[in-house]
Amino acid sequence: MSAAAPGQITVPDRLTRNVTAVRPEEADRWLAALPALVTAELARLRLTLDRVLDPGGSLALVAYVHRDDDLAPAVLKVSLRTPGTAHEAEALTAWAGRGAVLLLDSAAPDPGTTVLLLERLHGEIPLRSLAEPKAMLEATSLLHRLWTPVPAEHAFPGLPVPSPSAAAPDLPAEAGPLLAEAEEAAAALAGSATEEFLLHGDFHHGNVLAADRAPWLAIDPRPLAGERAYDLARLTLDRADTLVGSPGLPAAVRRRLHQLAEALEVDRDRLRGWTLVRAVDLAGAALTAGRRPDAELYLEFAGAL
Length: 305
Known about the structure:
Blueprint: H1 13-22, H2 27-44, E1 47-52, E2 60-67, E3 73-80, H3 88-95, E4 103-110, E5 113-119, E6 122-126, H4 132-146, H5 176-190, E7 197-199, E8 208-210, E9 216-218, E10 224-226, H6 228-236, H7 240-244, H8 249-264, H9 268-288, H10 292-304
Antiparallel strand pairs: 1-2, 2-3, 3-5, 4-5, 6-8, 7-10, 8-9
């Protein structure tokens, strides 16, 4: 039997919360239709459901499946289509498995939904499972492979015009100087970039998994066309707790910036600027989501910059 009945497909609680937060006006309809849609895709692609992953993706139902034709394992990912997720299939097609999970099939059953069939990686072994020095070494090697020229006539969005002040209502008053500096850096950086590459958009250790055909492969891109320092800034902020919890935080942050910029031949000043902007942005998002400890962590990291 290649398809599970809709009642067998349970939507993870995290997905329900996130979709409701992102699209409150259509969340109930989209979530209610999701089990039947997954069942239809299982039948269309001739797949057998193994299990739905919980918590799965932040805006996607993710399921382990097997292909009926050859019993090969795969992953079915059914995502809410947002500006961030809209071009995932195009990026994976451009990379063609080089440094990233391999796309086996894609579809858009309706304007608000994207369906991806992906090779199965070892979801239980993220790059985060390695010690930080080794993880950073693997991450920089992988990121270097992902930074490729954007395809001709591509549809990838450019870097978002950053507006750290959008987080102002949620940020504590003492973050005012950081907010002002991030606002100034965002304006300067957005208008002075001189390169354009295909970027992952959300590259960190949690979005890299162990694989069979390569040691590590990236997943869950939020693809953009822009400068490499923007992409590297997200990796710079990864495992911020290990630096914030260590003595000599400013010196530790400077070392990380220097090491990553040198390893990937990225301008250090631009990396510092984008890291500040993205740290303040992540802090605001964490506060909005009720994750105050995460917000405080990003603000402390930003202060050390």
